[in-house]
Amino acid sequence: MVGLFLTGFCWSAWATDAPINSNTKLHSNSEKIVLIVGDSLSAEYGLTRGTGWVHLMSEQAAKEKVKMKIVNASISGDTSSGGVSRLPQLLQIHKPHVLIVELGGNDALRGLSMRMTQQNLITMAKEGKKVGAKVLVVSMQIPPNYGANYAQQMAQAYESVKQETGAELNHVFLKGVADATDPLKWFQQDRIHPNEGAQGIMMRNIWPQLKRMLAEPQ
After folding, report:
1. Which residues contact 118 (CB under 8 A, 6 or more apart)?
2. More confident residue, 79 or 190
3. What ranges do the domains of the chain cover?
4. Which residues are part of the catalytic machinery?
5. Strand partners, 187
6. pLDDT on residue 143
7. 141-171 exposure pattern, b = at least 16 Cβ within 10 A, e = fewer
8. Beta bridge partners of 137
9. Among 3.40.605.10, 3.40.50.1110, 3.30.1640.10, 3.40.50.20, what is the CATH number of 2-215?
10. What's the pLDDT score for residue 29?
11. In the Cβ-directed half-sphere of 126, how many Cα atoms lie within 13 Å?
12. CA distances (Å), origin 33, targets 24, 26, 54, 58, 87
């Protein structure tokens, strides 16, 4: 059931408490700031607070003595347009070392123009780089019932972001979750949102890449 690959999107404005409140300015001489702007995949939708992949990544960083603070500004149901509108203030407040953009899935579920999504993601990546942040964009995929042409447009949109801005892409966020032999093993009862057990897999699919980016010269 590959159609479950595009997961974690909700039309409500529900959002979880973040590991660090997104309105609180964070800075320390010894820590690096990671700003995450995403949707319900990153906002602990339907999960016990503190069990999502973002929180697990913060714990992993502490275990490995990687000095960083996460600002989780993710909101369930958010689109790339919402991300564009929210990002300038977030960048001004937090001045992150790394910006993670996990958006575009809701755009696809709504059948929005991938050209618009592409431009929004490019804008976000460029804005992040303007403040000196490294940018990591999480590449999403569309279920096959949306058609091969639309899926190709979506894949190309993310590749264009990389080519035009130099942002890094992560293609494996849901690897081992959405492509599991048992397609429902890692999902909540709604068969849409990853469950608590999937969060560690999702974290490990991003953590090595983020850790490397944090270690490289700014």
Report:
1. 156, 157, 158, 160, 161
2. 79
3. 2-215
4. 40, 190, 193
5. 194
6. 67
7. bbbeebeeebbebbbebbebbbeebebbebe
8. 101, 169
9. 3.40.50.1110
10. 56
11. 12
12. 12, 7, 13, 11, 15
Which H or E run contains 38? Answer: strand 32-38
Q: Which residues, including other chains, have CB under 8 Å from residue 29's CB and lie 6 or more apart?
A: none
- Do the beta carbons of residue 38 and residue 87 sit within 8 Å? no
Q: How many CB atoms lie within 10 A of CB 188?
A: 17
198: amino acid identity, one letter:
A
Q: Please return the burial class of 19, using the count of CB atoms within 10 Å of its CB with bins 0-12, 13-18 and 19+.
A: buried
What tokens were used for 201?
């897999």
pLDDT digits (tens, 9 = 90+) for 89-117: 999 999 999 999 999 999 998 989 999 99
Which amino acid would we find at residue 132?
G
Q: Do residues 69 and 20 lie in contact, with contact meaning Cβ atoms separated by under 8 Å?
A: yes
143-195 residue pLDDT tens = 667 788 888 999 999 999 999 999 999 999 999 998 899 989 999 998 888 99
Task: Name the β-bridge partners of 70.
Answer: 34
